[in-house]
Specification:
- The chain is built from five helices and 33 strands.
- The protein has a domain at 158-426.
- Helix 4 (350-359) crosses helix 5.
- Helix 2 links the parallel strand 1 and strand 2.
- 11% of the residues lie in helices and 35% in strands.
- The protein is elongated.
- The protein is mainly beta.
- The strands form three sheets. It has a twelve-stranded parallel β-sheet, with helices on one face.
Length: 439
């Protein structure tokens, strides 16, 4: 077909006239119209700190406080202690809570009320954690973005000076986090700790140390998330010295995209600083953890690392925790995942390099899809319902690297480590978890 060439001058005036009526100029954009259920509507201004904090202090149960487009600049932490309050912006790209000038408060927002909802808001540049919710029943984050800029204003910076956690519900019940974007946290982007009945779905987490972390929780489900360009994509940890829930259990991680988590660890300190880069999923001292139907690819160290706290004691010189903390993994079920191109560029982390040197002789070293430290609670030996099960993954290369032997190898590099690549002892399955329902 011959196409007729028309001179630009012939149609340019009509085109420009048409575009002038399409809202291309921000000044001609439709004005913000607050939803009908808004109890209070706030707009940016020089007195944002006072205006917003007074609105939260004066809120009543059932209120919906709406925020129009624009940037609300804060110099201090914002707090809310009233039950049943919803904070709603005009969109995570248009309503911005900017804490760049913050000089007071441990985090950007401190929430202690039940039935808290936050949606369609961008929180950025908090000097500590982004939004912390403590001891609440009913917590919802929906369409919330948290990020940090570099000192020169470059957006989405991953810096050790950033807050440790972005979205941070702790000691809560009935937690829903969905459709959020979290960027640049110096510990975990989405962190849920010591909580019960937790659902984390359909979020994007990137440029964090840990993209998403479930820690000492009872009943958690993590699905539909994209975790990429973090140090590690998804962590399921049980850590010691946590009083509310000393030992978590029953976490399912499924149907997530977990890729390219190869960012250098920029955590300031703590256990998170020991986490090697290049890992898709890491389970530490987990109880009843199911990892299934995930697409895990292009993570340089491994797709899934499974270690007990005994490994940290043996290899990282951590002290032995006091009871009732349980250092061991039990009832771990890794099945029906797609693993592609993991382990081809192992981390320079000393822990990874020690394991690689003790168990591999090839050059270059390619680590397995699933790394397991081999520690088993002596009280659970022979109990089929407590063992590690691995079945139905696409490639599922595997190594039990025998961390106890590796620890001896560190002291005497002439010993032979008795590692195993035999999956036969782990060819089993455990009952599937039931879905988490948020009331």
């Amino acid at each position: 077909m011959r196409r007729t060439r028309i001179a630009f001058a012939t149609f340019a005036p009509a085109l420009l006239l048409a575009l002038s009526g399409c809202g291309g100029d921000d000044d001609d954009a439709a004005p913000y119209v607050a939803p009908a259920d808004c109890t209070t509507v706030l707009s940016p201004g020089a007195s944002a700190q006072t205006q917003v904090q007074e609105a939260l202090i004066g809120a009543s149960t059932g209120d919906t406080i709406c925020f129009s487009p624009g940037t609300f600049a804060f110099s201090e932490e914002i707090s809310l202690s009233v039950d049943g309050v919803k904070l709603r912006g005009a969109g995570m790209t248009t309503t911005v809570f900017d804490f760049r000038a913050q000089t007071a408060g441990a985090q950007g927002m401190d929430i202690t009320g039940d039935d808290f909802v936050m949606e369609d808001i961008h929180v950025k540049n908090t000097r500590g954690d982004g939004v912390r919710v403590t001891n609440a029943v009913g917590v919802t984050f929906r369409g919330v973005r948290v990020s940090w800029d570099a000192p020169d204003g470059t957006p989405d910076a991953a810096l050790g000076s950033n807050g440790a956690y972005a979205l941070y519900p702790v000691e809560c019940t009935d937690v829903l986090i969905e459709e959020c974007d979290v960027v640049g946290a110096a510990d975990a982007g989405i962190y849920v700790g010591q909580s019960r009945n937790v659902l984390v779905r359909n979020n994007n987490v990137f440029k964090n140390v840990a993209g998403l972390e479930i820690e000492n929780c009872i009943g958690a489900e993590v699905h539909g998330n994209h975790a990429y360009d973090n140090t590690t994509g998804i962590l399921v940890f049980d850590l010691p010295n946590l009083v509310t829930i000393p030992n978590g259990r029953t976490t399912r991680v499924h149907d997530n995209e977990i890729d390219d988590n190869n960012r250098n660890n920029f955590a300031a300190s703590g256990i998170i600083g020991l986490v090697p880069d290049g890992m898709g999923v890491m389970i530490l001292a987990g109880n009843d953890v199911e990892v299934d139907a995930n697409n895990v690819h292009d993570n340089g160290t491994t797709a899934v690392l499974i270690v007990s706290y005994e490994s940290l004691i043996a290899l990282a010189d951590e002290s032995r925790p006091a009871a009732p903390y349980d250092t061991w993994n039990e009832t771990i079920n890794v099945h029906d995942n797609t693993f592609t191109n993991n382990g081809t560029d192992p981390s320079n982390s000393p822990l990874v390099q020690i394991v690689a040197a003790a168990t591999h002789t090839e050059d270059p070293i390619v680590l397995e899809d699933i790394l397991y430290d081999g520690y088993v609670d002596p009280a659970l030996v022979g109990m089929d319902d407590k063992r590690l099960c691995i079945r139905g993954n696409t490639t599922q290369t595997f190594i039990d690297f025998n961390a106890a032997d590796v620890a001896r190898f560190v002291a005497d590099m002439t010993i032979d480590v008795d590692e195993s690549r035999d999956l036969t002892p782990h060819d089993c399955t455990h009952p599937a978890h039931t879905p988490i329902v948020i009331p």
